[in-house]
Structures are given as C-alpha cells and as structure tokens.
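Lecture notes, continued. The same structure-token format from the folding unit now serves as the input rather than the output. Read the line below as a description of shape only.
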C-alpha cells in the first residue's frame, strides 16, 4: 500500500549519471530509492543525500533478476507513491563482431533491455492505479545509430527505444509520461572498463545531463518531452 511520500526510483544509482540524477532529484523533495548491485556505493550516496537535507532508501538490486526486481518494487511501494522511475542501469562491452562473445551480448541485453522491461513492468500497475507517473529510459545515441564495434550494445539500445515507444503508446490513456533520453558520451565510470581511447575530458558531465533529465520531469500539465538527444556541441567523439 502506498503512503503519502512521493518516491523516485533510480536504478544504476551507485555511480555516473544515475548517481547525479539521484542527487539532483533529492533536491526536488522526492524520497529517493537507490538501486544497484553495489551496496557500499549506494550507502555512500545515501549519506551524501542526507547531508544535503534529502531522504533516500538503499535497496540493492540486480535489474536482470526478476526476483530481485520484485523485491525492489515491493519495498519501494511500501515507502510511498512511486511517481518517477529512472531506468538507468546499463553496461557496454565493445569489440569487433568476430570477437564478440555471446556471453557479452547476453549480459548487455539482460541489463540494458531486460532490466528496463522488468523494472517498468513492476511499477506500471501502481502508476495506472494512480493515473499518473513518469517512466524515464536512459538510452544512448547508440539507440538511434548503429555504431561499429558495438553490436551487442547497439542491439540492446535499439531494443530499449522500441520498448519505450511501445509503452508510451500503451500508457497514454493512463496519463503516464514516457521519456527516452539519448545522451552522447558522458565522463563516468562506464568508461573505466571499456578498451577505447576516447578523451574523457572532452565528454559531457553527468551533472549537466542529469540537470536536463530532471528538467524533463518538471514539465507541467499534459505536456511531455518524449525524446531528448543530448550531445556535445562538437558532436560525437
């Protein structure tokens, strides 16, 4: 049963863009539910939010696991009314197609696409009951363009575009806003395990992109920013 608190759930909240979105949303008086597999980093984020006057709850979650997502949904809805869900969990594993292991392909589909499906499916029933809610899908410019050496990542992100488009049209009559965000390269820990030499000092900051994401959530009334592409002025790296 939902309480009176307005709750925002952020997956992949332990680092990068998810962390920045959580910090920024806490300033809008949401109670943040912080979800990722890294419990230690989540508690560090919770402390930072608390020190800044915000409220949050840590719920360790593996978005690719149905039982783990079910636990996230149950515990989050016990806190209050979940009105915002940020599907942010994701990873990228890059190589030429001949060397791309099926295990890497499956991991990207399971986290980037399956995870967003499970999380969204879990929270949609309450949003439908409330006839209100905002679902955000943190996608990538790779969800609009087939970058080379990125077959698994691109496939997962194009799938995420289709998932969001389908849900958007299905949920219009329920007054649920579905927002897809397509950022270019962001300087974040995402790149720590990626074997490429992109100049990170030339990438966008997670704080700037988070500001745009939160702005999209604040659009009042019946309007919605359905798709947002965010790049550097200079274009892709």
């Amino acid at each position: 049963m939902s309480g009176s608190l307005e709750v925002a759930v952020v997956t992949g909240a332990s680092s990068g863009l998810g962390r920045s979105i959580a910090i920024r949303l806490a300033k809008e008086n949401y109670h943040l539910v912080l979800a990722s597999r890294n419990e230690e980093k989540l508690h560090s984020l919770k402390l930072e939010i608390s020190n800044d006057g915000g409220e949050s709850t840590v719920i360790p979650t593996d978005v690719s696991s149905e039982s783990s997502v079910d636990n996230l949904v149950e515990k989050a809805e016990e806190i209050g009314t979940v009105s915002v869900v940020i599907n942010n969990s994701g990873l990228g594993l890059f190589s030429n197609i001949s060397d791309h292991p099926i295990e890497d392909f499956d991991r990207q589909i399971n986290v980037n696409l399956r995870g967003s499906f499970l999380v969204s499916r879990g929270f949609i029933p309450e949003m439908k009951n409330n006839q209100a809610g905002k679902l955000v899908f943190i996608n990538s410019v790779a969800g609009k363009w087939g970058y080379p050496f990125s077959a698994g990542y691109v496939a997962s992100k194009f799938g995420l575009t289709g998932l969001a488009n389908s849900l958007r049209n299905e949920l219009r009559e329920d007054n649920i806003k579905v927002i897809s965000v397509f950022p270019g390269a962001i300087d974040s820990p995402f790149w720590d395990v990626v074997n490429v030499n992109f100049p990170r000092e030339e990438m966008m900051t997670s704080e700037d992109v988070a500001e745009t994401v939160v702005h999209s959530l604040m659009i009042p009334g019946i309007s919605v920013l359905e798709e947002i592409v965010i790049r550097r002025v200079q274009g892709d790296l």
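Point for the exam: The chain has six helices and nine strands.
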